[in-house]
Amino acid sequence: MDQQPTFNIIQNLRFLGAAVLLLVSCNAYASNHFPLPTNHHSTYSVTKYGAEVGQIDNHFLYQDQQINYTSKAKTTGMAAFFLKEVITETSQLYWPGDKALETPQQTSYIQRHKKKKKKDQNISFSWSGAKLVDVTSSYKNKSAILIPNKEVWSTQLLPIVMSSYLLRDENTTGDTIQVVDRNRLRNYDFTLEGKESINFNDTMYSCLKFKIRKRNSSRFTYAWLSADHYYLPLVMEQYKDNELNASMALKEFKLLK
Q1: pLDDT digits (tens, 9 = 90+) for 86-134
Q2: Cα–Cα distance for residue pair 86/103, rounded to 1 Å
Q3: How far is the C-alpha of 171 from the C-alpha of 184, rounded, in Å?
Q4: Which of 103, 108, 125, 141 is the most buried (most CB within 10 A)?
Q5: Interior CA angle at 33 toward 125 and 207, to 5°?
């Protein structure tokens, strides 16, 4: 196992890690338009070549009209021997208790690398009332001001938005979500592939299998979403050029006060 592929796995785990946010059902933090979970901490295990190569820890906290979501991805096992990388992400959103807004307003996104610091990102979202004015992005010592024509989120939040669609309408078969990443606006399409049963913790669950693809990319992800777990992906598999690159599974979940 060489160093660069190991780093690429960790880099791409950013997208997979956020999916745990919808483990719980709609609650006091939710609106009919955009369901949100309760406060929690979760851990995912990432495997490649049949061995664990990484771990993702997620921490979700909603209080005082602010949502703070942090993900920490790190190499483990032999992968850490070749490259001991840690990637930390934080998304912050404004979500007033009076539900004056239909969706949370993302205000910032920060990504930090322990080793590959040149890949750090800083993103800020400018709002005028309920309207998103622009997005300022910084990556590799370059900056850009982006004008989205629809709702836009950090890549970290992509699975949250997708799962929110399903919590609102379980018959959802697909849609397109726009995100900002590396100074560019990017579109992700998710499409229902069918239904399959997945063995999780020695129990079989009926799941919706979705294919998630970034446009104009050879990479895509399959996600098995269980209605019994409020559309939490029990298993996620990332493919490149139609070959399995890495997979991820829930390892631990804990509710927070």
Answers
A1: 999 999 999 886 667 888 999 999 999 999 999 999 999 999 998 999 9
A2: 31
A3: 31
A4: 125
A5: 105
